[in-house]
Amino acid sequence: MSDFTSNFWSVYITGISLVGIVACLVLLWFSGKAKAMTANDNTTGHVWDGDLREMNNPLPLWWVWLFIITVVFGLTYLVMYPGLGSYAGKFGWSQVGQYEAEVAKGNKEVEPLYAKFNGMKPEDVAGDAQAMAIGERLFMNNCSQCHGSDAHGSKGFPNLTDKDWLHGGAPDKIVETITKGRIGNMPPMAAAVGSSEDVRNVANYVLSLSGSPHDSVKASLGKSKFGACAACHGADGKGNQAIGAPNLTDDIWLHGWGENAIVAMINNGKMNQMPAQEHKLTESQIHVLASYVWSLSNKPGAVALN
Amino acid sequence: MENSKPVPRKVIRIAAVTDGGAQSLSTGSDAKMGSLYQAQKKIYPRSVSGLFSKWRWAMVFLTQLVFYGLPWLEWGQRQAVLFDLEARRFYILGLVLYPQDFIYLAGILVISALALFLFTAVAGRQWCGYACPQTVYTEIFLWLEKITEGDRSARLRLDASPMSTNKFMRKFSKQFLWIALALWTGFTFVGYFTPIKELGINFISLSLGPWETFWIFFYGFATYGNAGFMREQVCKYMCPYARFQSAMFDRDTLIVTYDEARGEPRGSRSKKADPKALNLGSCIDCTLCVQVCPTGIDIRKGLQYECISCAACIDACDSVMDKMNYPRGLIRYSTQNAIAQGWSRGQLLRRILRPRVLIYTAILLAVTGSLFASLALRLPFKVDVSRDRASLARIVGGGKIENVYRLQVMNATESAQNYRITATGLPGLTLASEGTISVNATESRSIPVTLQLPYDAAAPGSHEIHFEVESVNASGHVTEKSVFLVPR
Asked: Which of A24, A25, A57, A134 counts the most CB atoms within 10 A of its CB?
């Protein structure tokens, strides 16, 4: 109980628990000794409101054993489990420990299910109906919160069905992404690009790369300033999957479309993160899940696209 | 008030007995000091035969045939009645129920409670006397006790005698039969929750799982303890129904009654003697009614809370009346009004149709009717819609707004089914994901559904829409409400 700075509450709780149990035993002992006067008609002689008489219906003797069993159980429990303040108990039980034991047990129970997929290539796993049903449920439980139930993502959360990959779409890359997570970092580039006019020109140049509506004069002016961006996005703007730099030529806009969105991105930069799943999912689960994600963009018809 | 004279309050002291504390109390010679606890006096009920005993045995056979037999019935490829807690599917004959169907369990409980009210109002504790598992198993255990140890007097003698080979063998066979029946009962109980045939094989090969083992022995032990040893103690001290049923009694409720006017003054006499000449009532004070009572009361003292209305005393008394050539019915099912006013049987039965009974009957019929109607109209699939929470709406190519939903489709049939999904409520609303989906037998599936709306088709804000899901192969149509969000 490191949450408390003194052990007052620990002593307090321990005291109340033990005194309470001892008080129960004392009460039990006294009630066993005590005698009550009873008339032959089974009344105690107490009368209220003229005709309301108190009967004496004693508790059956075997009921006492239930009290004793309760006390013995209580004491045994307090020795074995944490209950007396900060005393941890002989079993060393904790909520976290039980949770971890249950997760380990659950994983062990489902491991045989995954065994047959472990040796298969991801492309083959993607063709297995049972594996894909498992993958779908894994996705629903672990991925859909950000990427959407239909895996189409939304602003800031990549669409997983469109063959456009920030860090690579090969099955082993997807496994790496799920296991270790990813951090995408676009630094603020306004200073490197130049004046605010230059930034607006570069934004129009970027729009022109994918043939999106843009101002062609500004775009041609911005081309020379694109050098600052080329270090990551490449001279042709096609990006670099090794460092997670997006392709700027494919008309896919993760953080918003249009001149203003791009200007804001150049000025402020962006840090985006996919959290690592290796502590939540087992290797076998990630294998099946990665195959499922791969299948979303590699098996036309598996999921209806737009 | 006839008793207007105030009764002086007697003070009874509760005190530890030290040196002759009892003598110093001044409550009169009929009072005595007693412990606050009462040792259980073992009751040796005498076996009885007669009309009501036959009824009870008929109920024993009926209830136990259902209890022990039902899990062995087959329905197609599966157990007819199986409550699969792990998969959360509950099979009752042709029905496949989901946890979402628990309203039916509530309905059955409401019906059971109302039926208890009705039967109790009309004829007292019929449930206790004829159908309650505590009564039924005690009856079976008493029968096993009788065939191994003999009837009441033989058992009394056996328990008083010192240990001998004969006594040991009789006790041993009784325990053996009791434990065997108790284990079979525990086994059957668990067989409702896990396929009983596999359970039987595992039981014989000693390869039961830890929980199966626990519940078989736990339920077996409860049967053995309650029916073998606790018996009337359960009814007297543990059962809540025993106490609240008396709240449903009125003066027209049938109860087991001793006809005091006819029976008293009681006393033994020769069969040939004329009771009138001896100034005696019909009761010959043979105490058979006390000996057969499973709760150990004397019904001649009037209605007592221990009486479970089993009518063993009626059967016993009727047989004695027959031997004495007196008319039957010194102890009989009658009502307080009928006894007090000397009503005939016809007058007594006419009082059954009183408002309380009619109201209970009407409510019971209404609830039972609605339960069966609801079961008959139940669709063999269910749909739940939840909107994706992370993304409210997104703008996609083609100038469209997209919302994503998750439809949980629960198939409550035992074959794979196809369902067609459509969405209505906004002009131009289209489904951008697969419109027909399949769900395996008795399975529940979460399906992502994408809806698209042209950019200017609706004002910014939240719009009510409806998902329509219909079964392709069978009939059935479910409409579920949701909303479509258009961003500003």
From this structure: A134
